[in-house]
Amino acid sequence: MKRKLDANDVPVPTGNIDGQKGEVTFTSLGLDPRLLQAIAKQSFPAPTPVQAKAIPLALDGRDVLARAKTGSGKTAAYILPILHSILKRKLFISALILVPTRELAEQVNKVVELFTAFCAKDIRAVNLTQRVSEAVQRTLLADSPDIVIATPARAASSLDTSLVSLENLSHMVIDEADLVLSYGYDSDLQNVAKILPKGIQTMLMSATLTTEVETLKGLFCRNPVVLELEEAEDEGGGVSQYVVKCAEDEKFLLLYVIFKLKLIKGKCIIFVADVDRCYRLKLYLEQFGTKSCILNSELPVNSRIHVVEEFNKNVYDIIIASDEHEVLGDEEESKDQGDEEPSRVVEEMSKSRDASGEQSQQPLKKKRKTTKKDKDYGVSRGIDFKDVACVLNFDLPTSSKSYTHRIGRTARAGQTGMALSFVVPAELHQKHKPTSIESTVHDEKVLAKIVKHQAKKGKDVKPYNFDMKQVEAFRYRMGDALRAVTRIAIREARTRELRQELMKSEKLKRHFEENPGDLHHLRHDGELRPARVQSHLKHVPEYLLPKEGKKSITSSEIGFIGKKIGENGTRKARFAGKSKGRGKKLVGRKSDPLKTFKAKSRK
Ligand SMILES: Nc1ncnc2c1ncn2[C@@H]1O[C@H](COP(=O)(O)OP(=O)(O)OP(=O)(O)O)[C@@H](O)[C@H]1O
């Protein structure tokens, strides 16, 4: 019979070498010394809760289904035991890691590289999602790599053409298990499941336990230990969540004020509803001399990966991202969402393995969205953006599930962060014609679901009311800037960026592998400039500033870049010193900068 283990039931080893008694350390987990060296190089102080619980189980050969919040270190929780097993192998063994997006595949590959820094010659990983010719791929796979990382589609087609051999497969992981089915990988996963050797160890990692995860559990696991990490178990950190009720045009006004007066100190991801909105916002911010870069499914994958890498190195401060086909419906609320984006309900009978490894019949029910552009694209899920101070939902997502994953891009690894969401209430929606219907129609309905969903996790979504009187002073300039951002300008910017990025992408692929040092020349936050440039908008005249003066708004207390709880207010050492001398103050969330901007109730 399947047993559901509460996270607290899991026997956690007591510390022996470098920890207090009862405290779990990486050493006490019994990992290979070469891995411990690599972990030390990462300056990871101790295993995160999900690592402390999942690693011993995985080392013990158990199938594991782990649910832990976004940014809680799930990747290392499955990679470390796999690497350990490969290093300790008596026979040849190998692992297959399935992830929903190419960005994630690249990210996982990087994590493998980091952890194998001291045993690189003993472990070889191949990322199958790289767009290389079949001949190159054959060469890469020729001498049986230890780890193969792929999206389910890539894995299925490579298995089909016998590019990948499962002969020695001993481990299989599905990361972001709650997402893969929503990405339309159902038949690929079924194909993979059919040909997997019996008795291999499987691990499913997920931020939420949905029916989709249950489906995968049935398909791939044998009597798995189910780990459900409560949020409270994830040490420290957390996202302070705020909403601002405002009209569509006020979103632009607030955006101007927030960035021009530098109310956000640290890096920010702005989420919008669609690709055009990305460019509208970028051009709008350009009017004020504020640089940003864009992430959307239209851009070539090399550019997308490069943008994330550079953002993580603090080269850019602002990413404007559209997660247009990641807007997943709320599984549990699907019945009352008849007016949301149409979703295709796929119901099939799938073959699944039962505890004995035999095939059994089990109904496979799931929702699936048809995807428009690059199916393997994903921003709000899984991508490890480093040190994001604020997630700004310029357009509210259309489901609470999307919201959870968007805000999970901040406050990672025990840090703190802030999520600020613009919500257009029905009455203000009437007043101002929205530029994006999709982004505003459901706002209040979605907000109610978000609040309910967060309340279940004991989280508050608080109102954040600007003193709109003070903000109004900037309206004239907002109007000036918005008028320059015409539809034609947006269209031009979109095609220009695509053209530029395609060129860069090709170059990136061919040239920069050999010259990694040159990468910084290919910046992604350059001005697109199709909009009329109004240089006066780049400066904020003194008379526009609130009475307290600019100084009070940009005082040293401003900033809410995540600090690691329990580290006396200092950020993790590995992040410190990476801000390239741009004077970012590393302070905690107590000093919420937006509050210096006189928060008041809306009349
Ligand atoms: N033990 C640790 N101590 C400190 N930082 C850690 C530790 N383990 C992982 N991290 C860092 O935490 C961050 C988040 O890790 P990871 O991407 O694995 O999270 P996740 O749980 O998979 O998130 P998501 O659900 O969004 O995919 C990474 O930057 C990683 O380097």
UniProtKB/TrEMBL annotation:
Residue intervals of the Helicase C-terminal domain: 238-469
PANTHER family per record: ATP-DEPENDENT RNA HELICASE RHLE-RELATED, DEAD-BOX HELICASE 56
Region (Disordered): 327-375, 569-603
One Pfam family hit: DEAD
Enzyme class per UniProt: hydrolase
Keyword Nucleotide-binding: yes
Location of the Helicase ATP-binding domain: 55-227
Compositionally biased residues, Basic and acidic residues: 335-356
An individual GO BP term: maturation of LSU-rRNA from tricistronic rRNA transcript (SSU-rRNA, 5.8S rRNA, LSU-rRNA)
GO molecular function: ATP binding; DNA helicase activity; DNA/RNA helicase activity; hydrolase activity; RNA binding; RNA helicase activity
InterPro entries named among the record's database cross-references: DEAD/DEAH_box_helicase_dom (IPR011545), DEAD_box_RNA_helicase (IPR050079), Helicase_ATP-bd (IPR014001), Helicase_C-like (IPR001650), P-loop_NTPase (IPR027417), RNA_helicase_DEAD_Q_motif (IPR014014)
Protein's name in the database: RNA helicase
A cellular component term, taken from the record's GO annotations: nucleolus
CDD domains: DEADc_DDX56, SF2_C_DEAD
Family in the record: Belongs to the DEAD box helicase family. DDX56/DBP9 subfamily.
Predominant subcellular localization, coarse grouping: nucleus
EC number in record: 3.6.4.13
Renumbered ranges of motif Q motif: 24-52
Annotated function: ATP-binding RNA helicase involved in the biogenesis of 60S ribosomal subunits and is required for the normal formation of 25S and 5.8S rRNAs.
Localization, UniProt: Nucleus
Species per Swiss-Prot/TrEMBL record: Oidiodendron maius (strain Zn)
Domain DEAD-box RNA helicase Q: 24-52
Catalytic activity line of the entry: ATP + H2O = ADP + phosphate + H(+)
Regions of compositional bias (Basic residues) in chain numbering: 571-588
Keywords: ATP-binding, Helicase, Hydrolase, Nucleotide-binding, Nucleus, Ribosome biogenesis, RNA-binding
